[in-house]
Amino acid sequence: MGWRSVVEMEMVSVRKWGECNWNLKKGMKVLKLGGPFMLLEFEDEEEAERVLKRGTCRFKDKVLQLERWSEEAGCL
């Protein structure tokens, strides 16, 4: 299994975990950014706000520090 396949499987795993753990009705997309960063794109803004208010959470052995991102802020 190649590195790309592992990354894609991890992204699917994060999406399914998030939809279940955060009780999302509309779902979310997970996009790989550089390094350890992922972009979680929520289908519903109110659900995104609710998840952000919950703060830091754990996925497997990783701590997820959620922050709002906008196009104006940019991405390095």
TrEMBL record:
InterPro entries per UniProt: DUF4283
A Pfam family of this chain: DUF4283
Domain DUF4283: residue ranges: 12-75
Official protein name in the record: DUF4283 domain-containing protein
